[in-house]
Design a protein that fits this description.
Blueprint: E1 11-12, E2 16-17, H1 21-24, E3 40-43, H2 54-62, E4 67-68, H3 69-76, H4 80-92, E5 96-99, H5 113-126
Antiparallel strand pairs: 1-2, 3-4, 3-5
Helix pairs in contact: 2-4, 3-4
Length: 127
């Protein structure tokens, strides 16, 4: 007896995902927008003017608050490149916005002469 699919019609317990990743992205491997795995995306509230497909709708539904590209890829069980293509389609139609991750400052300038001299002085005192 066949069991019902786990997460909708596109997943099957025995076979896994029934739709191949290249089909989801229409064979595209290059997103039109720039993303890395930590890029944050969020829905703008604007709906796409044209129908994009069930995968786009699923991704858009996950973008209610700021969420990373990596998190979305994990949620939809797709490779990062496929996720980036879907997200870039949504950016292109104005349905989502993206923001590069903020990088924490690395601390003092490692080339600061005063800092380097203080380290050198400290090392000399230990000898």
């Amino acid at each position: 007896m066949r069991e019902e699919p786990r997460e909708g019609p596109w997943l099957d317990d025995d076979a896994g995902r029934l739709i191949r990743p290249y089909t989801v992205s229409n064979g595209r491997t290059k997103p039109s927008a720039q993303f890395d795995l930590l890029t944050l995306v969020m829905a703008t509230g604007d709906r796409p003017q044209s129908y994009l497909g069930p995968d786009h709708s699923h991704v858009l539904g996950l973008c209610g608050g700021p969420v990373s590209v990596a998190e979305i890829a994990a949620q939809i069980s797709q490779p990062a490149v496929v996720t980036k293509v879907l997200l870039s389609d949504l950016v292109d139609c104005g349905a989502i916005t993206s923001r590069a991750p903020t990088r924490a400052p690395l601390g003092p300038n490692p080339n600061d002469r005063d800092l380097l001299e203080a380290v050198l002085d400290g090392l000399r005192k230990r000898l």
